[in-house]
# Entry
Amino acid sequence: MSVLVTGANGFIGSALVARLLARGHVGVRALVRRGSDRRRLQDLSAPDGGTPEIFEGGLSSREQAAEALDSVSTVFHLAASLRGAPADMVLNTVVASRNLLDAALGRPSPPKIVLVSSFSVYGVATLPRRHVVDERTPVEPLPARRDPYAQVKLWQERLFWEGRLERPYALVVVRPGVVYGPGGSLLSVRVGLQLPFVFLHLGGENLLPLSYVDNCAEAIAVCGEREEAVGEVVNVHDDELLTARAFLARYRAELGGLRTVSLPYPVTLLGSHLVSWYHDYSRGQLPAFITPYKTASVWRGSRFDNRRLHSLGWQQLVPTEEGLRRTFAHAREVRRP
# Structure
């Protein structure tokens, strides 16, 4: 039997394929869209020399999804839109997931599905500062007040949980925090916002739920292997976490060239009220790119707990300092003329 990785040529997906091969999985099938960039998968191989099966296709229909699921026992579902028009994000995240789920539930024996979700589904705007975010933290009660990404990830999760009511199947929901590493995004929105001429540092001393990409991939693989993870949500982040201020300082020391302005949380909250007011006053002339609710959701400041992940046997593969070194070394290499 094979395992299927959707979104396999993505930042986390390709790292997951590598970890599955390293952990001895046989028959790793990588689902990639026709014409997509596959460079991240080109040199991946198992210790015994095995390579992933590149399966060219998509999840645009139940029929295509069913073809990808042939002889598959576990699906690691990472395919999703990170940005773009809301309609496209719904199509590529929610509709694609519906096709995958329908195809899975239509099989005589549905495969286990490991859904890779996000910390963005948590509803922390009304929780106290320094609240500990763990798997018991409620999901967002007001998704319409958040960004499209949070909305579609909530919708996607609900789809898979409700699918278990249609027909019981093994489901694990994995929620990574801020995933970083060579080739990934460097400055999370939890650190601040990039404006045309300046970076607004809004995260202050808030902890970042950092997860180096290889550590995240290892966690996803472990969650797919452990039977005790079935029916559970598992948060994923590393053991040693940096503050937003410390991460930004490291970025500037390693890469330089970033003009920043730091705003304390009360000032950010006041500014978000002003932006929202002018958005309404001008009838949309200024986009409501920051609102009080979004500000509280992202920059109020939380703490984090990964004990459930550790209870499954996960151990951090790459120390945080090494992960930072690799990440910024790659960024310098990319920038080199």
